[in-house]
């Protein structure tokens, strides 16, 4: 304290700043200052003080004299301080809970600052479509890809999402210590089983299989595929009791979802699609082993996001709403029109007393749940496709920094366009349904006197070639990035024993807490060294299906299949380039 007073006395700074620093030093509150503060700028320019701060970080627990969060010294001294705390905890040294919290808060600020700088370069508006070879796809297919999977240049630039806390080994170890010492777990709830008919229960036994046929489920369930699928996914993870979900309310909610999905009698964006996407997300998490990476709230949010992601879909694209000036376009100002509606309508549904599946959540749990669901559903706006893929590819260079919300959003987005990666009998049926929905929109556009959207004209649409382009330029590159992401995350979990979190809670794995892991409910902490390679190994079933389906479409189109090397070059080109495109739309 005396050192701070001395520095303030000798440094040319305002009385207000001096009083501010001294006030927080006396109260032991964490004060986060930036390097442009005169007092701290002068202090950090001193090599003598640098040495003093290193000693301070490795011996003390106070944070008042830690360097500003945006200086080069901050990360190193932050690491030194956290290692000091870990050493004290390991040797049963006395560590005050308040000191641990203050140091973690300081660490969060340091890591937030680093993340802001790192992500500034990621969020530009370039897309990858213009670099696709001109003769790779017909012009109409290119127009459809441009309108569907890129953003309009006429809109305001979408700013990067607010960065969140990034875990590192030292910080999350300290975080887990806090959880182990101070967190109490509770689990209660009411469960009212939805007993599926025997044929349905038999089909649902394969819910984690890539070859799952959702059309069979819908047929055997009498058109209730989303209801039974949603209940099974939530039940299988024990979430009804863990998150205190009223089983009757859950059944009412799922039944109401089905009604909303059926509102416009869409051939494609209907309750079967909702059930299919939810099952695909679930299968991806199980195949990769990443289900163990998620907390109960995150699993619940992921399942619900998948179930509601196209709730009350109108059977038309965002561009249709914008061009025809619908009330939804006016309400959401032409920005992610349908995605915003899906979210708003679904959360409004959950507010109903007899459909409230969130009543058992604590305030902080609700905030985390809602934030994740919003992030994930908004990410299904296909106009952000290329930017989403580009951002994730950039993050793969440092897998430890991949946020859960970004990873889960990519999983849902990929699942939403995954039908070409399923067996032909499923993919072909989905394609027929989607094209019919497109044609219905085209019919309406002609009546309204507005331009017919690409692939929506019954007279000119090239279905076979559109699917070849869709698989080659959109779906296959998405699955390539998704597969790389999941493999890198699993590698991080195995090699570093670290769970990376996008929220403010710190989660990690320590070798000596394996016995405790089974007792943790809200914060899953599993010693991943105890997981066998068989549990986390991924078999990429989608690769075979994508290749077979593309080959079938080429046969139907009378197009010769490309040699493997040429196909690879095309995919690499589509994956690695960026450009701008106009006349843009949104498919949902």
Q: State the end-to-end CA separation.
A: 59 Å
Shape: globular
Rounded to an integer, what's the Rg over CA atoms?
A: 26 Å
Number of helices: 27
Uncertain segments: 1-46, 153-173, 178-191, 498-536, 570-586
Biggest beta-sheet profile: none
Mean pLDDT: 78
Question: Structural class, judged by helices and strands?
Answer: mainly alpha
Q: What fraction of residues sit in β-strands? A: under 5%
Could you give the order of the helices and strands? HHHHHHHHHHHHHHHHHHHHHHHHHHH
Query: What is the tally of beta strands?
Result: 0
Q: In which range does the helix fraction lie?
A: 55-70%
Question: How would you describe this protein?
Answer:
By secondary structure, the protein is mainly alpha-helical. 59% of the residues lie in helices and 0% in strands. The protein is built from 27 helices and no strands. The protein has helices at 2-10, 15-27, 38-44, 47-59, 73-90, 97-119, 139-149, 169-182, 198-204, 214-220, 225-236, 239-242, 247-261, 271-288, 296-308, 318-324, 327-331, 337-350, 363-378, 385-395, 404-416, 424-448, 463-496, 514-517, 533-536, 541-557, 564-576. α11 packs antiparallel against α13 (247-261). The longest helix is centred in the C-terminal third of the chain and has 34 residues, at 463-496. The chain is globular and about 75 Å long. The N and C termini lie far apart (59 Å).
